[in-house]
Write a structure and sequence with these properties.
Helix 1 (about 10-20) runs parallel beside helix 8 (about 290-305) and helix 9 (about 370-385) packs parallel to helix 11 (about 405-410). The strands form seven sheets. Strands 3-2-1-7-19 form a five-stranded parallel β-sheet. Strands 9-16-10-11-12 form a five-stranded parallel β-sheet. A five-stranded antiparallel β-sheet has the order 22-23-26-25-24, with helices on both faces. It has eleven helices and 26 strands. By secondary structure, it is an alpha/beta fold. Helices cover about 25% and strands about 30% of the residues.
Length: about 400
Amino acid sequence: MVIVGAGEAGARAALSLRQSGWPGAITLIGQEDLPPYERPPLSKKVLTCTTDTAPRTTVNADGLAADKITYLPGTRVCEIDRVHHRVALLPTQREFHYDRLLLTTGASARKLATESHSGAEIHYLRTFADAVKIRAKLDRGARILIIGGGFIGLEIAASARMVGADVTVVEMAPRILGRSVPQNLAKLIRQSHAEQGVAIFEGIGVTGFEPAGQQTRAHLSNGVTVDCDAIVAGVGAVPNTGLAESSGVITENGIRVDACLRTNDPDIFAAGDCCSFPHALYDNRRIRLEAWRNAQAQGQHAAASLLGAATAYCAVPSFWSDQYDRTLLICGFTDEPNTDTVERNLASGVNLQFHLASDGRLLGASAFGPNELIAREMRIAELLIERSASPGGDRLADPAVKLKSLLRAG
């Protein structure tokens, strides 16, 4: 078994293969020089804690050795020979034979269109090394411009404010978190940032940059200029599909796989941020997810598929984002067409939202507030979605009706 990509999905797949009893060779290939590590802390703890000199590992070198997993860090696969079942490596020029191949190549930060002619230094956050570079810019009083009001941009904004930097966020879309978060929750998140002193421009783009002494001056489309000590862009991610495409593996908004995570080549599979797959809970809609929990679960599922299982992957999509002392939790999809939204107001003042299909099925749920107040409720909502339950809008809206009772009922 050869796994290309040593992020969450790749590492979990390697460990799961061995835990499932696979006795043969497992080779895990990663481009970074570090052991597999967790990425969610990069925009949070790593930016706010200067004593973190190493990332939190998914599995360290000793753990890999104990499971007899061959790990090749600092190595890039440059070619897949599907006919002879071989992968070629850089910089060593070695070749590895595979019986089954798993691609967990992840995604790369989308680059700004204005960067090519600006001369400004733009920071992106995908790796631990990126986080360390950004952290070095977050001095108290430093002026930080963040381009992009999605999950990553807002998490970085929160971390920067927590260490005392002055923060401006610019979002080109009409509102922050426009793709995946209901409007009223996005409004609450915007308000939480405003309370912390973050300036947010919505429906505004960056038209260019110029030097301004020791700083960089950003020109916004509304005529405002922002002088900043550092610029961080979080404008989405692009799946890493080049290796798959060059070998004839079909791609479609990522590496195209079936419900078992198999590509058009019966011996090549894909998992994590790099792949798009049909989801049975959503009428086999083809989706691609950039989320830690999905990468973990798909890595484990891919291991079973590599060993011959024919079970469809249908875990409920779930996302979280920690900002200041509150958490955004989303499970399922909140943007499905023809849905009704039902609100549930808790005694704590926290608002939960449930998103129902026209036939009454629960498709998604979302909440923003202290984690300890919403985590249990959202976990029950996730189980209801998983069971394709139709719990009824009136009962979901009534805080006197315990969600757990709806789970037992259906």
